[in-house]
Amino acid sequence: MRTGMMMSALALMLAGGVAQASDAAAAQAVAFSCASGETMKVAIRSEGASAEVQYGEKDAVRVIARPSKQGARFSDSRHELRIVGNEASWKIGGRSAVKCTTEDAAQLAGLKR
């Protein structure tokens, strides 16, 4: 229940406070700068049920919300996104996670507990 409420609040914050009419509606993406030199864009969809992640020039990947003790966690069978405060990590397969940060802490303020 608590995670669901946090995901809903996060979705509204990341969408700039504008509720999404449907899954097809575009959410405003939050840009992150990564230690790898790449940029990562994250858009929360379906009121926090999933996130769309575009890392660098690669195609966007949709990952599903998962329980998390702190912040937010989204994953599928190959990818994992974790967001805590203004920091995120993006992991593909068995590779080490790439650390990323955003300057737009106002949109991510709801992740801090």
Offer a few descriptive terms:
globular, eight-stranded antiparallel beta barrel, Lipocalin, 113 residues
Secondary structure blueprint with pairings:
Layout: H1 2-14, E1 30-34, E2 39-45, E3 50-55, E4 61-66, E5 72-75, E6 79-84, E7 87-92, E8 98-101, H2 105-108
Antiparallel strand pairs: 1-2, 1-8, 2-3, 3-4, 4-5, 5-6, 6-7, 7-8
In short:
This protein has 113 residues and is of the alpha+beta class.
Helix content: 10-25%
CATH class: Mainly Beta
CATH H-level superfamily:
C-type lysozyme inhibitor
As an assembly, this protein is: single chain
Uncertain regions spanning at least 5 consecutive residues: 1-9, 11-26
Task: Tell me the CATH topology.
Answer: Lipocalin
- The fraction of residues assigned to DSSP E strands is 35-45%
Tell me the total number of β-strands: 8
Q: Main β-sheet: number of strands, strand sense, barrel status?
A: 8 strands, antiparallel, barrel
Task: Return the domain count.
Answer: 1
Descriptive notes:
- By secondary structure, the chain is of the alpha+beta class.
- It has a single domain, classed as C-type lysozyme inhibitor (Lipocalin).
- 15% of the residues lie in helices and 39% in strands.
- It has helices at residues 2-14, 105-108, and strands at residues 30-34, 39-45, 50-55, 61-66, 72-75, 79-84, 87-92, 98-101.
- It has an 8-stranded antiparallel beta barrel with strand order 1-2-3-4-5-6-7-8.
- The longest helix is centred in the N-terminal third of the chain and has 13 residues, at 2-14.
- It is globular and about 30 Å long.
- It starts with a helix and ends in a 5-residue tail after the last helix.
